[in-house]
Write the C-alpha cells for this entry.
Amino acid sequence: MQRLSNLAFGLLPVILALGLTTIILLVVGAPPLEAYRNIVEGALESPDKLSSVVTAAVPLWLCSAGLLITFAAGLWNIGVEGQIVAGALLATWLALNLTLPALLFTPLLLIAGMVGGALWGLLAGWLKVYGGVHEIFGGVGLNFIAIVLTNYLIFGPWKPADGATMSGTEPFPPLAWLPRLGGLPVHPIAVVLALVAIVLVYFALGDTTWGLKLKAIGKNQRSAFLMGIPTQRYILLAFLLCGALAGLTGSILATGVRQRLIPGISAGFGFSALLVVLLAGFRPVWVIPIALFFAAVGVGSPRLELNMQLDSALGGTLEGLIVLFVLLAQGVRRRLREA
Amino acid sequence: MDSLLLIKTLATIVRGATPLVFASIGETITERSGIINLSLDGTILLSAMVSFAVAYTTGSVILGFIAAMAVGALMAFIIAFGSIALRQDQVAIGFVLTLLGAELSSFLGNPFVRLRGPSVPHMPIPLLSEIPVIGPIFFNHNIVVYLSYVLIIGSWLYIFKTQPGLRLQGIGERPEAAFARGSHVNLMRYIYTIGGGALVGFAGATFSLSVKLGWSHRHTAGTGWIALAIVIFGGWHPLRVAFGAYLFGALKSLGSIFQRVAPGIPSQFFNGAPFALMIVVLFLVNSGWLDRLLFHLPARIRRVVHDALIGEPPAGLGRVFVKE
C-alpha cells in the first residue's frame, strides 16, 4: 500500500505536467507527439548527442552538489548563476594571459574557477551575515552584476582583435582546453569531478558532525547558535563551498565546452540546478538521474526550433511544471496523511 | 541642462516607473497580509507577453489588460493555495513560478516577437496639463499613469485609514490575534494575494502596452526582482514604496542621459546600476549602518528620520496560519 502510494505520488505530477505541456502545444497548434519525438531524438539519437547530454549534466551535478550544502544550512543561494560566471571570468583571465604546459594549465584554470566562484559566493554570504541582505536579493543582484561585468569585459578589455561581437572573446590557446574523450564532446575530468563532488557532499552532510551542525542551522538558526554552533562561520563556509563548485562549473564551461568566454556563459544552469535539487527533495542520490533528465531535455529541445519553428523554451516549461506539480503533490500527500 | 530638458526627463521618469509602481504596490498589499509572492519576475514577463498577444489579436488594449490581470491572479492563486492549503514553502513555489513564467513567455510569445501592436492612447488631462512644470511632468501621459497615482494614494488610505485596511494589517502582523477577533485570516490572505497578483499582472501589461511597447524575449527581465526589493526598501508602506519605484525609475532614465553626457563610461554599467543600487539600499536599510549614522542626529529628529527611512516587515510574513 505504502509502495503503491509512493508510486502514485511520484508519477502523478509527471503525468499532470506532461498533460499540461501537451495542452499548451495544442493551443499553439503544434502536434504534441512530434514535438516530444524531436526532443527525445535530439537528445539520444547518436553517441555525439549522448555525450552532449553528459556534458550538460556536469554543470547541473556540480551546482546541485553545492546547493545541497547551502540548502542544508537553510539558505536560498539563488546567486549560484553569478557564481558560475565569476568562476568563468577568473579562469578566462588566466587562460588569455598565461602560457603553461597543459598538465599544469588545466588544474590551475579549474582552481581559478573555484576561487572566483567562492569569492562571489562569499560576497553574498557576507552581505547576508553582516549586512542583513537576504541571500535571495544579494544573489539576484550579484547575478546581474556578474552578467554586466562579463559584457563589459567582452566588449572592452577582452575584445578580439577583429572587433567585439556577441560570440565572445577569442578562443583560448589549445593548451588551456579541457581535454575531451576522443572526438566526443565530453570531458572525462569534468565528469569525474562532478560525481566525486556529489559523493563527497553525500557523506559530508550525512555522516559527519559538520553536516549535522550545518543541518541544525538550517532547521533553526537561533537554537543552533544557542547550542554553541558558530552559525555565522558555518553560513559563510556554506556559501564559499557552493560558490567554489559553481565557479568550477564556470571554468569547465569556459575552458571545456566553449573554449572561450561568451556572454551568458552560465546558460541558466544555476537556476536549473535549483530546480533539480528541489525535485530531488534535497537527496543527493536523486540529483544524479534528475540532472541527467534535465540535461537530456536541454540538449533535445533546440530540435524544436530547427524542425518545427517552436521555441526551445518548451523544455524549460516542462521542467518547471514537473517541479511545480511535485511540490503541490507533496503538500496534498501531507494533508491526506494528517487527515 | 536647460529647464525644458529637465521637465521632459522628469516626465519620462514618471511614465517609465509606472510598471514598478503597480508591481511593488501590488506586492506590498500581498505581503501586508502575510504571504510572499516571489514569482514577480516571471509573472510580469508572462503577463506582459499575454497582454500584448491578446491586444494584438483582438485589437483591444482593455482586453489585453484584463488578460494580464488574470495571469497575475492565477500565479498568485497557485502560491496562496500551495502555501495556505498545502503548507508548502512559499519561496520554493514562488521561485519555480518565476522560472516557469519566463519559459512560458518565451515559448508562447515566440510568434509575437517584434510586431507592432496597439498601445494605450496618449491622453493629457485638460486644464491640469496646462499648469506650468507640474502639468507636463504629471498630467501629460496616458490613463495608466493616472491610475498609478490613484493606486498610490488609494492603497495608502486603504491600509492606514479604513477598517478593512486595519484588519489587513492585523492578519499580517498577528494572525492568531486577528483570528480571535473574528477575521477570516486565510480567506483574506487568498483575496489579498490574488488581488496583489492581479496588480502585478497589470504591471506587465503596462510594460508591453504603454512603456516598452511590444514583445521580445525576456522583455522585462529583472523588473520583478527590483519591485520585490523596493517593497523592502519602502518598508511595506505604499507612499515610500512609490518613492522607491520613482527612485529606481529615475536611475534608469538617468543612465541614458549620462551616456549622452559622458560617452566614455561603458553602457553596460548603467544596465547593472539598478541591481547594484538594490544591494546597496538593502544593505543600508538592514545592516544597522543607517542607525549608526542617525545616532549623530539630535534625538527628536532621529526618530522622525528613522521612521521615514526604516520599516519593519509584517511580523507574520511568510508564516502559515493554522487554526488550532
